[in-house]
Amino acid sequence: MKRRYSSAFTSIGLSPIVAISEQIRSVAPVFEKSGQRFAFLQRGELADPTPDFVIDATKRALDAGHTRYPKAGGEPWFKEAVIQHMAAEHGIDDIGPENVICTYGGQEGLQLVFGLLGGGTVLAFGPAWSCVLENIFPFTGFEVDTIDLVEEQGALRVDFDELDRKLAAADVLYLNTPQNPSGKVFSREELVRIDELCRQHDVRIVSDEAYKDFVYDGREHVSPLSLGGDHIISIFTCSKAFAATGFRIGFTICRDADLIRKLTLGEYTQTAGVVPFIQRAFADVLTMDEPRRTWQSELVASLARRRDRICERLGPLFGGSLYRPEGAFYLFLNLTGLVPDAPAGEDTSDVIVQRFLDQGIAVVPGTAFGDDRYARHVRLSFSGVSDEVLEEALERMIDGVFNGQARATG
Ligand SMILES: Cc1ncc(COP(=O)(O)O)c(C=O)c1O
Fold first, then answer.
1. Within a domain: residue 2?
2. CA of residue 395 to ligand 1 center, whole Å
3. Is the distance from CB of 40 to CB of 362 less than 8 angstroms?
4. What is the pTM of this model?
5. What are 174-186's pLDDT values in tens digits?
6. Whose CA is nearest to atom 2 of ligand 1?
7. CATH number for the domain that contains residue 98
């Protein structure tokens, strides 16, 4: 019997985030027997329920009978809603329906886009989201090269000389702003310089803007799309901004209409298109004023408070070097000097994650976002827990994980 499999499938791995979630399914109940609450800080989704205005819009869409085959690429009224949303929220007013495709969340957008771009070398800022590294890039035949963001006095900056060098050998740049896992929000000035270099090297930008609605301290999310040009492909999702990860809807925008047409053919081939009543619901939600605005601004304010609390409690331990996330809902902690070395022969990253698990806290190992150079990092999410559970977890982290140890000020 000839049993061959496509290398696209055999080269992908189980995302470490999924792996850790499976592990804690058995660990958490055991911990909770001690009478304490387990802290799920590995989660990349909000603990908040999907808001009523989303549920109601979905029920209305079902009642209105949006249950037949969808139009591949997205219904015209969904695309119209995206166009209005981008103009109202981000001042981008020069896109038409031919520049928009509706996808099954950001993940399908990424898979379609990288699938279409057809392999080669993709350059990504490190640390980078595990799913692109483990799944999307290998699945679509891309080799990844990374350029690490440079930590400097509590800030993360781009080394533009290195970027210039690395872009010379790249086919595509993957840019994620706000960034998972660091929480960096790329400024307009940075984006302009990055874009200039990409144009010089004739490199397309795939811009992952999954967290566009999560920016703090009055910052603005700048979509690279606002810089103009048809070499930028921006990928959006409704998963995070509406606590709606299970609805699986998002959209991708590019001024190159031919590229969108090709993506549409790809989508037709693999799924025939996104569930129409979900499209109808989100066409309403994306263009809704209230209660959407109030719900989102309260959500972002509560996340900012949680971030502040974490920085307040952990900041002193990090001797002034703790990076304060500007967006998204994660902290990427460098634990060098805060946790003891792993015993000889043991994996540093596993030992660190286990220290957290022993204290009833789930985090994602740093290696998921690069490789061994992040073995002493962990990603901690402040989206999936209540203020009270977070507070208890911080207490156990300081006493139990770090043993009250602090890094020298530097
Ligand atoms: C950086 C980034 N991009 C894209 C996504 C895709 O999300 P979804 O497929 O749920 O829309 C995620 C989800 O965690 C993410 O973290």
1. no
2. 30
3. yes
4. 0.96
5. 999 999 999 999 9
6. 210
7. 3.40.640.10
